[in-house]
């Protein structure tokens, strides 16, 4: 018997977004992180819930991997990524004794922790809660969608790279969303082209257009193509705020545009 | 004497705890099992598995090689090996692996529709893996290469507990984020007593086809540092090359179609 949605820890969270992909390594955590940073720059309070229990990337991307989680009356206190407490994070990465510890768990244990992450974290007042997921359509996803259902999530953003093997997996994820009644806010095509910093020749290392085509074919909005950007990878390694520090970089316009579409979709004036 | 009593207690406890665990049983006809894992998704496990399987067969044409795609949720092998269709059943009710380029392949991808997601919890996944391992007519294989899914969960545990594994190869890209997970992957294999043969660094450097300028898009040498700290060998360093992706997408892996290229 859990708290009814009105009294729960998620009661003061305005919008819940999931970042999904059928495929691994396409940039879910990257997109989740950059989206959070862009929304914060637009003045929103944002939280990120990292339910990737085997490979939690979020703490590292904000350079808070050595932080610990504290308890309060209403549950766990999320870790704040910046001094001004504008981004709060929760991940299994904060609960491990050593960051290198492997979490080799079977399904039921993972499900129990995810339920706790959803109901026992004192998020407080947030405009957006972004949920970063592992690849696939497994225990973590089923549990997360079930646990979030009473809180009426806004929808899911699907991330893919342009190549055929990724698009195939993401197509399955779209079906998963349909089956579980999760609204698809749109598709992001990541790693879409690389511009050589030396000669400006654009090479489509992972092909191009696969994500856009999938969006058209499936009848979901296409949120944009993000190119391969070494500055983006480097700033994630260092845990820096890419959105504020590298506005002239090649990935910035696409990422900013994606955040803008999310804001437009949730502004009170939209129908 | 209390020290030896503790030891006896410890051994007894280990014995009782291991009673519930599955015993390792080798697959009939398969000599050596090689596992490709990473912890992190999208670093190129399937791409490497396919090309390694083909390279093993190309290096020694007397060896029979099989390829098992253990990624239940995102099976990539069918596309990369240009194979489609449901496997036939032998008179003994075993599934016959689909063959291409001389490699016998089995994947979840052959058993479900291309667009159907596999939305299963752990227990069903375990029984599916069991079927893919044992209810397949592999015949006599010198090597079975198993392409693992990302993560350190049910599939990895089931495979390591059910069959003896000759060795595991861990693949990673140079980024910190990927290395974090690769380290966890190595730790997982240590926990389940599977020998790790070494690390492979993938997507290490990109050379612009026009001006030949080299860019380390995902960082440089990260895997070399990890290998040193884990005291493992680097088995290979694969650059980012458009050919690899193009040939995978079209189902003609680069080892077969372009054996002269850098990859």
Automatic annotation (TrEMBL), chain A:
Subcellular location(s) per record: Cytoplasm, Cytoskeleton, Cilium axoneme; Cytoplasm, Cytoskeleton, Microtubule organizing center, Centrosome, Centriole
Q: Just give the chief location class.
A: cytoplasm
Subunit (UniProt): Heterotetramer of 2 NUBP1 and 2 NUBP2 chains. Interacts with KIFC1. Interacts with NUBP1.
Task: List the keywords (alphabetical).
Answer: 4Fe-4S, ATP-binding, Cytoplasm, Iron, Iron-sulfur, Metal-binding, Nucleotide-binding
Gene label: Nubp2
One Gene Ontology biological process:
iron-sulfur cluster assembly
Spell out the molecular function terms from Gene Ontology.
4 iron, 4 sulfur cluster binding; ATP binding; ATP-dependent FeS chaperone activity; metal ion binding
Its function?
Component of the cytosolic iron-sulfur (Fe/S) protein assembly (CIA) machinery. Required for maturation of extramitochondrial Fe-S proteins. The NUBP1-NUBP2 heterotetramer forms a Fe-S scaffold complex, mediating the de novo assembly of an Fe-S cluster and its transfer to target apoproteins. Negatively regulates cilium formation and structure.
- Quote the HAMAP family the UniProt record gives: Mrp_NBP35, NUBP2
The source's domain of life comes to: Eukaryota
Any one cellular component term from GO for this entry?
Answer: axoneme
For this entry, the protein name equals: NUBP2 factor
Name the species this protein comes from: Nothocercus nigrocapillus
- Stored InterPro entries: Mrp-like_CS, Mrp/NBP35_ATP-bd, NUBP2/Cfd1_eukaryotes, P-loop_NTPase, YlxH/NBP35
TrEMBL record, chain B:
An annotated GO cellular component: mitochondrial matrix
Please describe what this protein does.
Iron-sulfur cluster transfer protein involved in the assembly of the mitochondrial membrane respiratory chain NADH dehydrogenase (Complex I). May deliver one or more Fe-S clusters to complex I subunits.
The GO terms this record gives for MF are: 4 iron, 4 sulfur cluster binding; ATP binding; ATP-dependent FeS chaperone activity; metal ion binding
> HAMAP family recorded for this chain?
Mrp_NBP35
GO BP term, pick one? iron-sulfur cluster assembly
Top-level division of the source organism's lineage: Eukaryota
Q: Which InterPro entries match?
A: Mrp-like_CS, Mrp/NBP35_ATP-bd, NUBPL-like, P-loop_NTPase, YlxH/NBP35
* The protein's required cofactors: [4Fe-4S] cluster
Designated name of the protein: Iron-sulfur cluster transfer protein NUBPL
Q: Where in the cell is it found?
A: Mitochondrion
| Chief location bin | mitochondrion
The alphabetized UniProt keywords are:
4Fe-4S, ATP-binding, Iron, Iron-sulfur, Metal-binding, Mitochondrion, Nucleotide-binding, Transit peptide
Q: Which Pfam families match?
A: ParA (PF10609)
Q: Which PROSITE patterns match?
A: MRP (PS01215)
């Amino acid at each position: 018997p859990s708290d009814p949605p009105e009294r729960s820890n998620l009661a003061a969270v305005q919008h819940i977004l999931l970042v999904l992909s059928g495929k691994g390594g396409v940039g879910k955590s990257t997109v989740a992180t950059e989206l959070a940073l862009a929304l914060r720059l637009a003045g929103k309070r944002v939280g990120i819930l990292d339910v990737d229990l085997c490979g939690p990337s979020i703490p590292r991307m904000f350079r808070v991997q050595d932080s610990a989680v504290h308890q309060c009356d209403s549950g766990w206190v999320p870790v704040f990524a910046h001094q001004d407490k504008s981004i709060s994070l929760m991940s299994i990465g904060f609960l491990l004794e050593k960051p290198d510890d492997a979490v080799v768990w079977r399904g039921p244990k993972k499900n129990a922790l995810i339920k706790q992450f959803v109901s026992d974290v004192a998020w407080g007042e947030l405009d957006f809660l972004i949920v970063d997921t592992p690849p696939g359509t497994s225990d973590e996803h089923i549990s997360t969608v079930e646990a979030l259902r009473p809180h009426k999530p806004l929808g899911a953003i699907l991330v893919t790279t342009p190549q055929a093997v990724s698009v195939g997996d993401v197509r399955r994820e779209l079906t998963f969303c349909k089956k579980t009644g999760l609204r698809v806010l749109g598709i992001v095509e990541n790693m879409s082209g690389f511009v050589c910093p030396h000669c400006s020749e654009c090479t489509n290392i992972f092909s191009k257009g696969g994500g856009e085509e999938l969006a058209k074919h499936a009848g979901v909005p296409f949120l944009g193509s993000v190119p391969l950007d070494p500055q983006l990878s480097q700033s994630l390694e260092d845990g820096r705020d890419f959105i504020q520090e590298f506005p002239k970089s090649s990935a910035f316009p696409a990422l900013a545009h994606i955040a803008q579409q999310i804001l437009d979709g949730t502004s009170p004036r939209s129908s | 004497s209390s020290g030896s009593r503790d030891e006896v207690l410890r051994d007894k406890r280990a014995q009782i705890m291991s009673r519930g665990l599955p015993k390792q049983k080798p697959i009939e006809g398969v000599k050596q099992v090689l596992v490709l894992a990473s912890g992190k998704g999208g670093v190129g496990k399937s791409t490497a598995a396919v090309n390694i399987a083909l390279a093993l067969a190309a290096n020694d044409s007397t060896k029979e090689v099989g390829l098992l795609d253990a990624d239940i949720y995102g099976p990539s092998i069918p596309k990369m090996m240009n194979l489609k269709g449901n496997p036939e059943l032998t008179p003994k009710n075993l599934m016959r692996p689909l063959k291409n380029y001389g490699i016998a392949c089995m994947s979840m991808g052959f058993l479900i529709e291309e667009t159907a997601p596999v939305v299963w919890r752990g227990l069903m996944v375990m029984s599916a893996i069991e079927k893919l391992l044992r209810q397949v007519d592999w015949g006599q294989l010198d090597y079975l290469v198993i392409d693992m899914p990302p993560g350190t969960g049910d599939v990895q545990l089931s495979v390591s507990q059910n069959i003896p594994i000759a060795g595991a190869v861990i693949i990673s890209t140079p980024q910190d984020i990927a290395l974090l997970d690769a380290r966890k992957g190595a730790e997982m294999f240590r926990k389940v007593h599977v020998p790790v043969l070494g690390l492979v660094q993938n997507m290490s450097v990109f050379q612009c086809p026009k001006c030949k300028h080299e860019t380390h898009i995902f960082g440089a040498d990260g895997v070399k540092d990890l290998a040193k700290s884990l005291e493992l060998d680097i088995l290979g360093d694969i650059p980012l090359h458009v050919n690899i992706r193009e040939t995978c997408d079209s189902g003609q892996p680069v080892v077969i179609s372009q054996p002269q290229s850098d990859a």
